[in-house]
Amino acid sequence: MSAPQFDPASYDAQLEEKKQRLISLLAPFNAPAPDVFDSPREHYRLRAEFRLWREGNERFYAMFAAGDKRTPILIEDFPIASQRINDLMPRVKAAWQANEALNFKLFQAEFLTTLAGDALITLCYHRPLDEHWQNAAQQLANELGVSLIGRSRGQRLVIGRDHVIEELEVNGRSFSYRQPEGAFTQPNGRVNQKMLNWAFDALGERQDDLLELYCGNGNFTLPLATRVRKVLATEISKSSVNAALANLADNQVDNVTLVRLSAEELTEALNEVRPFRRLAGIDLKSYDFGTVFVDPPRAGMDPDTCELTRRFERILYISCNPQTLADNIEQLSDTHRIERCAVFDQFPYTHHMESGVLLVRK
User: Fold this and answer.
1) Is the pTM of this model over 0.90?
2) At which positions is S-adenosyl-L-methionine bound (predicted)?
3) Which of 40, 257, 277, 299 has the greatest number of CB atoms lying within 10 Å of its CB?
4) Pairing mode, if any, of strands 106-113 and 119-125?
């Protein structure tokens, strides 16, 4: 993990720079002024991972400057991480220092927390984990009130749960999310909640159906499903699909059909290029899609998926890369215009930014 440039005094200026960058990228498309959603200045990141660096008989949490893997920056606390992570870090360090079963050949520690206060710690080793490790890890998990996972080559030992539970409020309703270890989750919980509320408002109350591509663990699916008649959602990651199905059941959201297909595969299915067994029993023609919601990876939508979205009246697009967002909008600009846009500062003190647009047919 690379060391961030933590400087709260510069926060307002860096957020303004991100706003202006999005305005500049969307200027060719006559975009309205963006809504701007800021982040807490510290303790905003809900997950963190650290390599461990040994000096003498002691191991330290460590990070490295970009491009330098040999000069560790030793970490005692981590102000961008949640308060829960900062509270756990010294206690976990004291535990491995005091117990050889926890300490021997330990090389990485990962923390996953939630706004709701849940926590999961993963300890990674260059050795097989035995009964001595399990006993020590069970005692540590009990003392800290956390779940704990031990990983080594070919091993994954779970003490407690292999996921955390998050609670996020959208338009006055609380949604519960299982967030599995190792699966993607939004790192900035406060800003994620703002993104969900913005998308919920931008979608509006609809009498038709929603197609969602790249649905992940159902982060957006749960609240958006309450705004439409029914949802067809796709995701390729098996762990994310399993988490999304559990989240739909936990929240009693029953108008969503989830299929494990990539966006490219669904494009082929909707274009009737070829059938998919995973769509057996799903009548695609029964859907009256009015809006497509996309939250693609940094590469954005591929050209064919972008063309697929063109057929929809409304495109609700959350992006983690404003350049590929602008590239996709360029492809769609002859048929759609930007009605709303927003900046979400998921990643303070970095150049990364999250943005959103609502495109409607001209």
Assistant:
1) yes
2) 186, 214, 219, 235, 295
3) 40
4) antiparallel
Is residue 201 marked as binding? no
Q: Cα-Cα-Cα-Cα dihedral of 268, 274, 277, 283, to 10°?
A: 70
Nearest to 293 by CA among 305, 283, 281, 303: 305
Give residue 222's identity as a one-letter amino acid code: L
For the question of residue 354 being annotated catalytic, the response is yes
219 marked among binding-site residues:
yes
Distance CA 97, CA 133 (A): 14
Task: Give me the amino acid identity at 113.
Answer: T
Catalytic residue among 215, 306, 320, 341: 320
Q: Domains (ranges, CATH) in the chain?
A: 8-41+188-361 (3.40.50.150), 47-164 (2.40.50.1070)
Q: Say if residue 255 carries a ligand binding annotation.
A: no
Main-chain phi, psi angles of 49, to 5 degrees: -135, 140
Query: Residue 320 catalytic?
Result: yes
- Is 20 marked as a binding-site residue? no
